[in-house]
Amino acid sequence: MSLRAPLLYLGMAAVLLLIGWLQSWSVALSIVNLCLISAVMALGVNMQWGYAGLFNVGIMGFAALGGVAAVLVSMPPVAAAWAAGAGGIGLAALAVALTAVAATALRRRLAPGRWRVLAVTLVVLLGYALARRAFDPGAEAIEAVDPALTGYLGGLGLPILLAWLVGGLFAAGAAWLVGKTALGLRSDYLAIATLGISEIILSVLKNEDWLTRGVKNVTGLPRPVPYEIDLQAAPWFVARAEAWGIDPVEASSIAVKLAYAGLFLAVLVVLMWLAERALNAPWGRMMRAIRDNETAAEAMGKDVTGRHLEIFVLGSAVVGIAGAMLTTLDGQFTPGSYNPLRFTFLIWVMVIVGGSGNNWGAVFGAFLVWLVWVEAEPAGRWLMGAITAGLGEEHWLRLHLIAGAPHMRMVLMGAILILALRFSPKGLIPERPRTRPARAPDC
Amino acid sequence: MADILNALAVFGNFVAVPGIAYGSQLALGALGITLIYAVLRFANFAHGDTMAFGTMAAILGTWGLQAAGIGLGPLPTALLALPLGIAATAGLVLLTDRYIYRYHRARRSTPVTFVILSIGVMFVLNGLVRFVIGPDDQRFADGERFIIRARDFEALTGLEEGLTIRTTQLLTLVVAVAVVAALFWFLRRTRTGKAMRAFSDNEDLALLSGVDPDRVVRVTWLIAAALATVAGVLYGLDKSFKPFTYFQLLLPMFAAAIVGGIGHPVGAIAGGFVIAFSELGLTYAYKRVAGYLLPEPWAPEGLMQLLGTDYKFAISFIILVVVLLVRPTGLFRGQVI
């Protein structure tokens, strides 16, 4: 057991404490919260990449599905919208299901060839036309219900914590569909395919207003923790804050963030425990065997495609949970804010830098990279300001450089990724070697 | 008869003409991806941002020329700045190859490592472009905007529907044809081109025959840089330049390269047009076309639009998946350039 991992974690804790002490505790806690969510996402990616070597760059899509779950579970239902258009949507869903059944049946019955392709295509087109006939008026009616405030079906009005589970289920379902079609592909094809799927998921979420309000966003999601205002009004809280010598307003913000951090940490701990158990179990050994030599594992009778599908679904579910957590923390669902650089590729940087194949590494990578990502913006602005200080306050170059400074963190992330692959390809906390070192035979 | 011509004019105006221009731009981009794949054997995720970088360099050049009062009359000034953009991009990709990819090539890292490296390069270029030119829309087309305006076309032919052809659309086609012709001549006729094809076909055999691998790799990067810059400038002239849009072009370009058969230049061109026409054809509302073609009582009530325009990217991806499932080698078989 090397001291490397504990030392790195201690260092991270020290840096976060320093930020709290120098900047403010509220800022430090915001960073910690997003670090924790990123850590869960990185854990999901590490399962797919580190355990099984699956190259999934559709993280954003699965995270967004988790976000949708938060909306659909927690928002109150819009009764008028249900009355207006739910029937049409339901009919359309029925038509789609029937088409799928009919197409599959036809595919099974008919002999392969040109006629089968033609027949299946015709059935699908017909089904699509029928579904659209029922769907369009339904969706229109729903979107017409008080469009400035609702204009969508709303949710189920259940506690938002439940959405974390549902988000995982949504992502798992989508991953199952994707995995069924795309997992047989070579690694770079799989990457392109998953990149495309995440774009599709996002474009559906942006444009199906009846479901998610699209780019009009859903704001004011219910919270699993108390509101700051309520805390400030509660006498016991104010008394406690004054006893500690903190301003009640700041104390309420810190308390809320601490509550979130506790919830996120609980999720991370549970998932981490499960992931470590799985990795050390025979199942984890089998996964590594498949990752390291697919052909040999297959020759030993392992179902490579089946196991790949399994880990793809599990990893995506973890990402979906993290996505739901993120939307819960934000208190709003904004499909327009999902950007593959931030939600897919940044998570990849975390896993690679932290150490793929090692859960502790991935989690540490998430903390480190998120911290750098957040702090790079003010640091870049300060740096540019310092460099150009001699140019005079209103010089065009100075203004341009300071305005552009936030984009430099992209450059920084790319550089970190490239340097990590060159100088520390196994990551900061590398995967533990599982085999005992070969002992020289006794003579 | 007039009805049919009117229907054709509408179709041409909204699908055929833009489709040819967009298809040419995608084809040029996909060619770059396919060449990198054929020779260096990885999917280059940085290609979209390489395009953005080249376009940015050309735009900066264009602004310089415009400030100096140099122009091409009816043609956009950006054409003059194109060589500058190509040179800058060529320098950039050679630097990335020298300091990033070469080390891993020598160590024979796995193809996935190269893909992740290209993601790193993508981040760097993305940040760099936004840092220099900003994340906003830039329009840099100047000169004559139209070859045929809708009104002139109506006056000329006496039809009810107008057909607009913009200068940039014709320019795209002409430049794309010229570039593709030059590329094919290079690959088929010159010694270096033949060395590239041999290297792509069988690396060991090519090395045994005395092909210089470093030179082949260098030339491939140079061609990819030139193709990316030309594609990017043409796309920017035709629509507008925005760094994020160029990043998003990655998906249709990959789709075009794979649909055509990755590593296959003719396939990349065919794939570009397949993707472009499916995107436009499936998201176009055929109401007006049908209105001319069908007798009055059959005129459609709805828009006759298969998918909303917002699902453009989804289409390229769906085609990609269908091709991967039905015919994984793409339209043109084989991994040969």
From TrEMBL, chain A:
It holds the Pfam family BPD_transp_2. The chain crosses the membrane at residues 7-23, 29-47, 54-73, 79-103, 115-131, 151-177, 189-205, 258-279, 309-326, 346-374. InterPro entries: ABC_transp_permease, LivM-like. It is a multi-pass membrane protein. It comes from the Bacteria. This is Branched-chain amino acid ABC transporter permease. It is found in: Cell membrane. The keyword Cell membrane applies. The keyword Chloroplast does not apply. Keywords: Cell membrane, Membrane, Transmembrane, Transmembrane helix.
UniProtKB/TrEMBL annotation, chain B:
Keywords: Amino-acid transport, Cell inner membrane, Cell membrane, Membrane, Transmembrane, Transmembrane helix, Transport. Its main location: membrane. The chain crosses the membrane at residues 20-40, 52-72, 78-100, 112-133, 170-187, 219-237, 306-326. Pfam families: BPD_transp_2. It is a multi-pass membrane protein. It is found in: Cell membrane. The keyword Aminoacyl-tRNA synthetase does not apply. Belongs to the binding-protein-dependent transport system permease family. LivHM subfamily. This is Branched-chain amino acid ABC transporter permease. It comes from Paralimibaculum aggregatum. The lineage of its organism: Bacteria, Pseudomonadati, Pseudomonadota, Alphaproteobacteria, Rhodobacterales.
